[in-house]
Structure formats: structure tokens, C-alpha cells
Amino acid sequence: MGRLFGIHARPAGWLKWLLAALPFVLVLGVYLGASEIRHRDNPRDKLLPGIGQMAQAVQRMAFEPDRRSGKYLMASDTLASLTRLSIGLSLAALAGLLLGLNMGVFPGMDRGFNPFVTFFSMVPPLAILPILFISFGIDELAKIMLIFIGIFPLISRDIRLAVRAIPKEQITKALTLGASQLEVTYRIVLPQVMPRLLTAVRLSLGAAWLFLIAAEAIAANEGLGYRIFLVRRYLAMDVILPYVLWITFLGFTFDWLLRQAERRFFPWHRGGAAS
Predict the structure, then answer these.
(1) Does domain 60-272 bear CATH number 1.10.3720.10?
(2) Residue-level pLDDT at 7
(3) Mean predicted confidence (pLDDT) in 178-186
(4) What are the phi and psi torsion angles at 264 (to 5°)?
(5) Residues 6 or more apart whose Cβ sits within 8 Å of residue 241
(6) What pLDDT does 274 receive?
(7) HEC per residue, 91-111
């Protein structure tokens, strides 16, 4: 047992895959067993649908056009959600990078903005969701703003800390050799914190999905969160569970793409990258 789970354990390649797959197999086995028991007592049970029921629901939602709209609902929901998520995350990453970078380099910017950003990061984004809908309406802007407000302070604070961790000698030497303050900021410091930006976005993905699903559940006419909360009134777990798994897969794919981008464009940072 110590060879597998001890402090100095180094499982072989095939054993790594086995250990990684084991929890998924156990959870799937428990679910299938519980589903079989419930359907044995009540064949119409909706709480724990079987694999066949979920496959039929996916067939209906993903591969058959809706009778009312003519759309493939899962595809249209996915496109709507990913558009909102991508815009919100991109704006938050850009604004967080610029503000965090300048706060980390310039003490005046740090004194002026850091207390406000710290205070702003403590405001629960979901608590101000009604304010956003009142201010920006129930269209796309309010949903994007919720993602932005929820993610931007965290990214800017993370980038600030990454800048502050850069040895001061680098900045001093660059200034001594004649570099301007802007050149130091954007040609010396900026490239060093870009990998940290990708990591910060990766770590913010879960929260971004939470804000998106919450916004879509309250006010939307399409989207993954909208669809989940729409069908819950019918106890349609055969739709809800595949949608949840699909959201999980999309989140994993986003995370994988960001890790690949970090390895591709910043190979020198791989040793310190979060996995």
C-alpha cells in the first residue's frame, strides 16, 4: 500500500491511469446500481435515469430539430453560453492584466487602486445580479458583466502579486541601461507574467461557469443554464444530467486548451506551472 499512496510513491504509467480511472468507475457503478434499484421498484422513476434514457434525451436535444424553433437545442444552447463565457473571460483577463501589471510596477497605481480592487473582490457577484439586470437589462450585457465583475478582481490581484514577485534587480538594471518606465513595464515585466495570466484564467473557469449558469437561469431564452432550469420543472433528469456532464466536458476542454497554450508559447514556465 505504501508503494501506491506513500510519500515517496511513484506509480508506473499504467498504474497512474488505473488510479485516475478508479474513482470514476466507482461513482458510475454506484449510480447504475442505484438507478437499477429505483427502476425495479418504479419503472417510471425520473430521479435516476438509466443510460438508455439519457441517450434518448441527448438524441432528442442534440440531433433532432426542435418542433417550435427548428433549432438543435443543445448546439444553440452551447453556442450562446460559450459566447457569453468567452467574452466575459476575455474582457476580465485583459482588464485584470493591465490593472494588475500597472499596480505591481507603479507604487502610485498600487496605492490608488489596490484597496478598491481588494474591497471590490469581496462583493459577492451573485448578490448584485439583480442590480446588473436593472442597470443593463436582461439581454447579453448583464450576463457578460456578471462574469467580468466576478473574475476581473481576482485576476488583477493575482497578476499584481506575480509582478511583485519579479526580482527588483531586473527593473533596476533595465532602467540603468536606459530603458523607459513603459519599456520596463511592457517589454520586460509583461512577458514574464503572461503565463501567470493563463493560470489565473484557468483557476477562474469554475467561478465563471457558476456566474454564467446563475445569470442564464434567471433571465435568458437560450443557454445551458437556461435549459437546465427550464426542464427542472418537469423533473427531466435525463436532460439535466447530460447537460451537466457536457458543461463539465466544456470546462475541462477550456482548461486543457489553456494548458496547451502555456506549454506552446511559454515553455520556459512549464516547471512552475500549475497542473
Answers:
(1) yes
(2) 57
(3) 90
(4) -75, -45
(5) 49, 54
(6) 46
(7) HHHHHHHHHHHHHHHCHHHHH
